[in-house]
């Protein structure tokens, strides 16, 4: 019996060479979650769609189903987000981190849930024109909220005492009051937590560079604590001189 084919919107999140001329493309799709597929002959100069199967491009892709890997039979460009990203190191690093994070979070959601795909596409568009660290942290926070484990940023995550508070630790779920703060909790500026709250709600933040840096470290620490693994692309976003300092969980 012939195998089925299917079509979906997709974004390339990772790729690696396969054989002499092929490449395995890992894509986040809107309706099928993460899909791994072979793009045959894509490394040849005359490939008919090789230039489209790149980072920061939204695609309309036709897949032929295989046992272990699908095959990409057609790929059409829907939107190109690379302009403004690939020429700027900070934007490129943040956008690559968003791709890696999307892959890690996709395993925690149902394949048919389009939220993560839509959020990633919106983030890629925003990277072109907005502060990249804030775009990345907004994507992180809102994706964690959708997954059900966004950090508490005003009330104490342990006892719900109203804030603002001056401590944060992923183990308690975010902000912590004086009575509930665990050993190793980060001392934070309450305005940093307010900055993260604004991003979580989708608002623009007028935070200082120091608050943006500290907020990024908190968001990153919370993510990596809950997924129980490091996100390699986030390591390049380390900023020197942060007032937060380094913690075991960061």
Automatic annotation (TrEMBL):
One of its GO terms (cellular component) is bacterial nucleoid. InterPro entries: ARFGAP/RecO, DNA_rep/recomb_RecO_N, NA-bd_OB-fold, RecO, RecO_C. One of its GO terms (biological process) is DNA recombination. Residues 5-81 form the DNA replication/recombination mediator RecO N-terminal domain. Keywords: DNA damage, DNA recombination, DNA repair. It comes from the Bacteria. The keyword DNA damage applies. The keyword DNA damage applies. It holds the Pfam family RecO_C. Belongs to the RecO family. Involved in DNA repair and RecF pathway recombination. This is DNA repair protein RecO. It comes from Corynebacterium lizhenjunii. The lineage of its organism: Bacteria, Bacillati, Actinomycetota, Actinomycetes, Mycobacteriales. The gene is recO.
């Amino acid at each position: 019996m012939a195998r089925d084919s299917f079509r979906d919107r997709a974004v390339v999140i990772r790729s690696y060479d396969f054989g002499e001329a092929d490449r395995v493309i890992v894509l986040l799709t809107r309706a099928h979650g993460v899909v791994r597929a072979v793009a045959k002959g894509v490394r040849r100069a005359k490939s008919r769609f090789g230039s489209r199967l790149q980072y920061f491009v939204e695609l309309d892709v036709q897949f032929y189903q295989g046992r272990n890997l699908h095959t990409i039979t057609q790929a059409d460009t829907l939107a190109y987000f690379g302009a403004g990203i690939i020429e700027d190191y900070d934007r490129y690093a943040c956008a690559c981190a968003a791709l890696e994070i999307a892959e890690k979070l996709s395993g925690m959601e149902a394949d048919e849930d389009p939220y993560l795909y839509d959020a990633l596409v919106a983030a890629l568009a925003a990277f072109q024109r907005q502060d990249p660290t804030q775009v990345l942290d907004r994507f992180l926070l809102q994706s964690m909220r959708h997954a059900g484990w966004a950090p508490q940023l005003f009330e104490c995550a342990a006892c719900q005492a109203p804030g603002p508070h001056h401590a944060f630790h992923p183990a308690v779920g975010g902000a912590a009051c004086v009575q509930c703060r665990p050993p190793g909790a980060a001392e934070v500026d309450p305005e940093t937590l307010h900055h993260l709250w604004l991003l979580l709600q989708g608002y623009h933040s007028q935070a200082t560079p120091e608050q943006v840096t500290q907020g990024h470290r908190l968001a990153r620490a919370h993510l990596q604590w809950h997924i129980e693994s490091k996100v390699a692309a986030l390591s390049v976003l380390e900023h020197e001189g942060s007032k937060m300092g380094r913690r075991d969980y960061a």
